[in-house]
Amino acid sequence: MGNNAGRRNRMEGYEVKSKRKKGTAIVIQLPKAHVDCIITPQELTGIYQYDFCNTADLFKQDLTNCDSEVAVNLALTFVNINDSHKPIRNSRVNVWCGDQDSRSKAGTQMTDCNGQVIFKVSPSSLLNEAIHFELYLNGMLKTTSELSVSDLHNIADSIADGFCGMTIGVEVPNNGIITLTPETGGQFILEQNHSNPVADKTTIGFTLLQESKALLEVFDTSGRKVESLVDTSLEAGFHTIPWERNGLPCGNYLYQLSVENKDGIYRQIKVMTVE
Fold this sequence. Notes:
By secondary structure, this protein is mainly beta. The chain contains two helices and 20 strands.
């Protein structure tokens, strides 16, 4: 560590192959132009900075809390309808069943390279119009939506198969507040890991604008910390940190960079996929 140092998700749509250096290719799947509902984000009052480390207990996929009921996998795919329906990646999604204050049946996930999150919910929640979600595009822009009766009827037919999904179109602004990264405070730039998806090993790169204490950690989607990669002071400049899966099962994992210096503490999360 120091300075300068596909899986194919099966879903309807077409594929775009984005070639990377050294012949590595990432398969990104874009849904068809059809969306089940459209939502419009609103600007928050103030900056909402998210700290995954102190709220890891909210990162869970199973929202049933019921051993007697068979869970249904609910897949929500978020696409930018203002940009050719491209997937919205690395955005936090909060989902809860029933009343918004019922946090015992609430969970959080981050959208993957296909703009998708998956939660395990009870069939009764789907049939009784009791699923709600929030999507945070960044620390200053979010949208909240309740799935309507008609929306839920569109996906309820798949309950018997144990899997159902919706594609949600988001009217993402083309400029202005969406281009900001308030989580970083302008103190660092966190890159997407390369290569992604991860077969055996990958590299996480980030740039510090000034000397700072850096904490880089990896978590699974249940909020369990997998590994701490960096916990030390680093000089300003570009840093690359290697990471090996070491037998971890396939799936999505999150890495969060926390940067602390004289200007404050700033954090950002991204998702990587192990195949």
